[in-house]
Design brief:
GO molecular function: copper ion binding
Number of strands: 8
Order of helices and strands: EHEHEHEHEHEHEHEH
Family: Belongs to the CutC family.
Largest sheet: 8 strands, parallel
Shape: globular
CATH architecture: Alpha-Beta Barrel
CATH class: Alpha Beta
Helix content: 25-40%
Number of domains: 1
Strand content: 15-25%
Radius of gyration: 17 Å
Distance between the termini: 20 Å
Organism: Streptomyces populi
Protein name: Copper homeostasis protein cutC homolog
Pfam families: CutC
């Protein structure tokens, strides 16, 4: 049995090379996306199956077909459900999603329909929470949805630098209604943020660009991931 890690480290993977390097560096889980120019969209089934065959750590697959936080109306939701069905048929069993309505509240109709298609699979509500008009209300509206076990958040649309006080405050509410899901910190996250976040009891972290010394045009570096792993295990 592998030694228990001090915290969960999730790394964005765009393809097999990223995935293999991230696992080698000590990632616990991967978030699979394509098109980071649009902040991460749903990857192809072929990308998922290639990565699934190459690594043995959990994979969370993005369900998002266009930039922004709109589900795209009824046609968009239909397309998202089809994508979820195809990915689940290929073996995917963990997902990432999150949609807001025009008022900045959760698009409950869209989210509930997609979650129903996931049939109990675990999922993350992603950084749409950072754009919500009312974070607390959003959490409480989503509290009873099956499978929701994580919020990916920077605490602010601008990133962790601005969001630190919110993250610390939300960590202190763990266990309250709407605050049972784990907080996974991501979005402008740096190594120097970790001491304050860890002191607040936060234990899940998400990196993308920080795992790529050459930027988004370059691959994930196992060495860069290992630096984060070491920092979290220290």
């Amino acid at each position: 049995m592998s030694e228990r890690k001090s915290a969960v480290l999730e790394v964005i993977a765009l393809g097999v090379e990223d995935a293999v390097a991230a696992q080698a560096g000590g990632a616990d889980r991967l978030e699979l996306v394509t098109d980071m120019a649009a902040d991460g969209l749903t990857p192809s089934v072929e990308t998922f199956t290639g990565i699934r065959a190459s690594v043995d750590i959990p994979l969370r697959v993005m369900l998002r077909l266009s930039d922004g936080f709109s589900a795209g109306g009824a046609k968009g939701v239909d397309a998202l459900v089809r994508a979820a069905d195809e990915l689940r048929e290929a073996g995917a069993d963990e997902f990432v999603l999150g949609f807001l309505d025009e008022h900045g509240g959760p698009d409950l109709a869209a989210v509930e329909r997609i979650v129903a298609a996931l049939d109990g699979d675990r999922w993350t509500f992603h950084r749409a929470v950072d754009r919500a008009a009312d974070r607390d209300a959003l959490r409480k509206q989503l509290a009873d949805l099956p499978g929701l076990d994580t919020y990916l958040t920077a605490g602010s649309p601008a990133g962790v630098d601005d969001g630190l006080p919110v993250l610390v405050a939300e960590a202190a509410r763990r266990g309250e209604p709407g605050y049972e899901p784990r907080i996974m910190v991501g979005g402008g996250l740096r190594l120097d943020h970790l001491p304050e976040l860890r002191a607040a009891g936060l234990d899940a972290f998400h990196i993308g660009g920080a795992a790529r010394p050459e930027g988004w045009t370059g691959p994930v570096s196992a060495e860069a991931v290992r630096e984060w792993r070491t920092a979290l295990d220290g």
